[in-house]
Amino acid sequence: MLRISEIKLPLDHPAEALPAAIVARLGIAPTDLLSWEVARRANDARRKSAILMVYSVDVTLADEASVLARFADDSHVRPTPDTGYRFVATAPADAPRPVVIGAGPCGLFAGLILAQMGFRPIILERGKVVRERTKDTWGLWRRSVLNPESNVQFGEGGAGTFSDGKLYSQIKDPRFLGRKVLTEFVKAGAPEEILTEAHPHIGTFRLVSMVENMRATVEELGGEYRFEQRVVDFDIRDGRLRGLHLHNGDYLETGHVVLAIGHSSRDTFHALHDRGVHIEAKPFSIGVRIEHPQSWIDRARFGQCAGHPDLGAAAYALSHHCANGRSVYSFCMCPGGRVVAATSEEGRVVTNGMSQYSRKEFNANSGLVVGIDPERDYPGHPLAGIALQRHWEERAFVAGGSSYEAPGQLVGDFLARRPSSALGAVTPSYKPGVHLTDLSLCLPDFAIDALCEALPVFGRQIARYDDPDAIMTGVETRTSSPIRITRGKDFQSLNVAGLFPAGEGAGYAGGILSAAVDGIKVAEAVALSLAG
Ligand SMILES: Cc1cc2nc3c(=O)[nH]c(=O)nc-3n(C[C@H](O)[C@H](O)[C@H](O)COP(=O)(O)OP(=O)(O)OC[C@H]3O[C@@H](n4cnc5c(N)ncnc54)[C@H](O)[C@@H]3O)c2cc1C
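Above: the input record for the complex with flavin-adenine dinucleotide. Below: its predicted structure, written as tokens.
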């Protein structure tokens, strides 16, 4: 089979245009094209007046060898890669059971792969099963009641459960582990199109049942989930992990632990630091969520073709390097979605975004964030980034009226550096509500300056991006982990054998797909160390 990539067709092409384009591209007789299937589908909307669909297709030909020889210098005609996943080990009969801390995408995939290899992992999760957790999360959104152990960050499915469910990543993936992740997601109930769409997404409702289905698979394979089991301390002796202390006083003896705790488990970060586990501060970003009507973004990106069913709701990615040396960029853009309350700690406000699969809600939202780094912004202590996050999250809580409403400001007022007092054409979606104020109360001056410089620049790239009525809510502080729990080539902590830091919290992933892929890699390392 051969993979032919970069086949471009007009947006509204008939179905038969694709095989015809394959035949024309390869210069073969139509009868020599024995079969074909789409491997990847994207759109190219750089020219709004001539939007293209761009395909990669896998083809079976009557004579593949001669086509390959003719296209030897063309990187868009290649043998179809083998993307199948192969297990690196099988559990010996007497293998001790490994432990996974965290049931987010990283922990879910670490647990799944270990279970598929026969290791019967124990998965400890501080939050609740996903349906219970959903009720608690709505408690904050609808009634301003936060459960610090069961919320957007904590519980089965991890941080990505109430999200847009975007499933793409910039990571290098020579072993096609991302394909393994997507294939398992489809088995668990994701739409098949995620295997071919260039920018697949699942939306929040489907994620909930997928997470449940994956749990059932792990349990059928002998794995075990233990919910509402928070790890509070680590028993480390002679440079080796010996066991885990749980919040209920239990002790779990174990020498192999995948640490997949996400970026918001600040109490656990402190416990690890107190036990001397090697931790470094790392860069992350802070800023706001910005909302526009989705129709403005569709029109700006797709022109007359806005609303076309093959294009869906338009997304964007923006970045600008500012005169003050800061970078501003859009983060986790959610087309047709809503802004959500994403704090896990009392007396703090954090924003993030999510969408349903249909992406049919009125507004587009995106993080608009400014890069910060330890040397310049939080020097000295490995956990100083957490203190900085907490500081601005507390300021946001107060600026929002100390009731879990988010502080908000219209873009026009923000650029004029005056507080907002009335909404314009854009209605914010954040629940439990938005308190109009001045966002400079809850962001550092350099971030305000950088955002003020970047907004008009972005307005020249996407019409009406800097419209005075567009609305911003804050603060967006949990863009990625503020720390790295550094690991060596064997995926174990630099100074604690048997502890395998993984996923976003450890600083090795930045999204659902990359966290899941990291979970697979770390599960393989655990399996190899257990299989001897
Ligand atoms: C609202 C929102 C929307 C998002 N949208 C997207 C998106 O569309 N696409 C995308 O790619 N990414 C998105 N993300 C980011 C994505 O969710 C994360 O990158 C990803 O979940 C990280 O996976 P993880 O497994 O490393 O950590 P997490 O998902 O954070 O999971 C960590 C788990 O560990 C548990 N835990 C923590 N400490 C302990 C402890 N001491 N004991 C026991 N259990 C513990 C937590 O309860 C949690 O369930 C979004 C995040 C949020 C919050």
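Notes for the reader.
The mean pLDDT is 96.
The CA atoms of residues 95 and 530 lie 7 Å apart.
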